[in-house]
């Protein structure tokens, strides 16, 4: 309605003049039916204009979103490429540093032949559990001097 008012600039005096001309031209019998029809047509026109405006706004927003999406994808691709390039570079430098020298290889074979620590611990008699001082004394006390302790 505002867009029609702005385009036609209808004031109260102009509307009264149009109503008077319509009353004279159409007549009092047909005027209510014509007014209803004109109102329905005006309502349809407003709905069509609103739908068109909404669709145009959606298209504009869609284009803006697509533009933002393409910018985001481009920046993501750029970041991905720089990340892959730096990763490749780091792998190349670390692989060059990781190449073992012949002496290192020889030491690796020696280390490979050495028994693992868990095997050493099994063969060497380490204490498997910790005893209290009293328990150690009881263990090493001669058999004759051992007393049987009865609690009951």
Automatic annotation (TrEMBL):
<dbReference type="GO" id="GO:0008320">
    <property type="term" value="F:protein transmembrane transporter activity"/>
</dbReference>
<dbReference type="GO" id="GO:0043953">
    <property type="term" value="P:protein transport by the Tat complex"/>
</dbReference>
<keyword id="KW-1133">Transmembrane helix</keyword>
<dbReference type="InterPro" id="IPR003369">
    <property type="entry name" value="TatA/B/E"/>
</dbReference>
<feature type="transmembrane region" description="Helical">
    <location>
        <begin position="6"/>
        <end position="26"/>
    </location>
</feature>
<protein>
    <recommendedName>
        <fullName>Sec-independent protein translocase protein TatB</fullName>
    </recommendedName>
</protein>
<keyword id="KW-1003">Cell membrane</keyword>
<keyword id="KW-0812">Transmembrane</keyword>
<comment type="subunit">
    <text>The Tat system comprises two distinct complexes: a TatABC complex, containing multiple copies of TatA, TatB and TatC subunits, and a separate TatA complex, containing only TatA subunits. Substrates initially bind to the TatABC complex, which probably triggers association of the separate TatA complex to form the active translocon.</text>
</comment>
<keyword id="KW-0653">Protein transport</keyword>
<keyword id="KW-0472">Membrane</keyword>
<dbReference type="GO" id="GO:0033281">
    <property type="term" value="C:TAT protein transport complex"/>
</dbReference>
<dbReference type="InterPro" id="IPR018448">
    <property type="entry name" value="TatB"/>
</dbReference>
<dbReference type="Pfam" id="PF02416">
    <property type="entry name" value="TatA_B_E"/>
</dbReference>
<keyword id="KW-0813">Transport</keyword>
<keyword id="KW-0997">Cell inner membrane</keyword>
<comment type="similarity">
    <text>Belongs to the TatB family.</text>
</comment>
<keyword id="KW-0811">Translocation</keyword>
<comment type="function">
    <text>Part of the twin-arginine translocation (Tat) system that transports large folded proteins containing a characteristic twin-arginine motif in their signal peptide across membranes. Together with TatC, TatB is part of a receptor directly interacting with Tat signal peptides. TatB may form an oligomeric binding site that transiently accommodates folded Tat precursor proteins before their translocation.</text>
</comment>
């Amino acid at each position: 309605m505002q867009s029609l008012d702005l385009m036609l600039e209808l004031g109260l005096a102009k509307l009264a003049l149009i109503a008077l001309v319509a009353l004279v031209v159409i007549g009092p019998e047909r005027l209510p039916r014509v007014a209803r029809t004109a109102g329905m047509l005006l309502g349809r026109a407003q709905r069509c204009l609103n739908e068109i405006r909404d669709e145009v706004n959606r298209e504009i927003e869609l284009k803006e979103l697509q533009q933002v999406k393409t910018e985001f994808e481009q920046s993501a691709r750029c970041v991905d490429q720089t990340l892959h390039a730096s990763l490749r570079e780091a792998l190349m430098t670390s692989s060059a540093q990781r190449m073992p020298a012949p002496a290192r290889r020889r030491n690796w074979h020696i280390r490979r032949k050495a028994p693992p620590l868990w095997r050493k611990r099994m063969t060497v008699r380490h204490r498997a559990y910790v005893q209290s001082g009293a328990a150690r004394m009881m263990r090493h006390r001669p058999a004759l001097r051992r007393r049987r302790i009865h609690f009951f």
